[in-house]
Amino acid sequence: MEREANEKKSIVRAVDRSLDILLCFLQHKELNLTEIAHLVSLHKSTVFRLVQTLENKGFLIKTMDTEKYRLGYKILELSANIVGKNDPAILFLPEMQSLRDRIGETISLYIKDGYERLRIQSVESQLPIRRVAPVGARMPLSVGASSKVLVAYSDSGEKQQILQYLKENEQIDLEQFEKQLSKVKNQGYATSFEEREQGTSAVSVPIFSHSGKILAALTVSGPINRLTYRRIKEIIPILGESQKRLNRLIHL
Fold first, then answer.
1. Where exactly are the structural domains of the chain?
2. pLDDT digits (tens, 9 = 90+) for 18-39
3. Is residue 84 packed enough to be buried (19+ CB in 10 Å), middle (13-18) or exposed (0-12)?
């Protein structure tokens, strides 16, 4: 029995380490064995065995020219099965593209995932200088227009849990942050100016689910010299129109 328990622990540990390796590719397109070993804090020989297994199963691909690894096509096959007709990332895309064409700036869709926000869809500006917004990027809930929307409209219990987490783990003026959240609820949108990224500003509005809970944050972002306070004021009514259409769409 003891041997069986140890074998199960070993299998679980291998799975955990394999997932850690895959998660490295959230921030990196290609990595070699040494880089992966450093990121997951494992011996290179251990990483080699795990990477070989992931490669054999199609989750990683080794590039012949650089000897580096990248995500394999099996990831795409799996992701295809999570996309459904009611998936906001797909359902909202035409409206996001239309909004981008009207405003000219990058449009992003964020959801709350634990104590972070996750970008699940983006339509980038076609202007030469633009806000680059990769899908899958994670950011803290402590800064940014999207974060303020997602936290402000959370249920009271969940909101308190988030605030407690931010108080314990982030360098944040909690009193000031709560004042900002109250302002967001009062005006129906949030703005940010160089809060998370220098030279960038944003404006965000909430999208609600069937039950009336916060589903996502629809956000316009761009260079601060173009997306000025005055320009944001001009954009808010246009963003509000898209917000209404998406709220109606999710209720169909």
1. 2-78, 88-250
2. 999 999 988 788 999 999 999 9
3. exposed
User: Residue 235: CA atoms inside 13 Å, Cβ hemisphere, count?
Assistant: 29
Percent of the chain beyond pLDDT 70? 91
Could you say which architecture CATH assigns to the domain 2-78? Orthogonal Bundle (1.10)
Q: Calculate the alpha carbon distances from 239 to 95, 174, 221, 251 in Å.
A: 11, 28, 12, 19
As a whole number of angstroms, the distance between CA 200 and CA 216 comes to 21
Q: Which amino acid is at 40?
A: V
Of residues 169, 113, 157, 177, the one with CA closest to residue 139: 113
**Six-digit token pair at 173?**
């003026």
pLDDT in tens, 89-133: 888 999 999 999 999 999 999 999 989 999 999 999 888 877 666
What is the residue-wise DSSP string for 64-96? TTT--EEE-HHHHHHHHTT--TT-HHHHTHHHH
Tokens matching residue 2 = 């003891």
Q: How far apart are CA 72 and CA 231, in angstroms?
A: 42
Between 3.30.450.40, 3.40.50.150, 3.40.50.11240, 3.90.580.10, what CATH number should domain 88-250 receive? Answer: 3.30.450.40
List all residues 6 or more positions away from 61 whose beta carbon is below 8 Å from its beta carbon. 55, 69, 70, 71, 72, 73
Instruction: Name the 3-class secondary structure at 137.
Output: coil
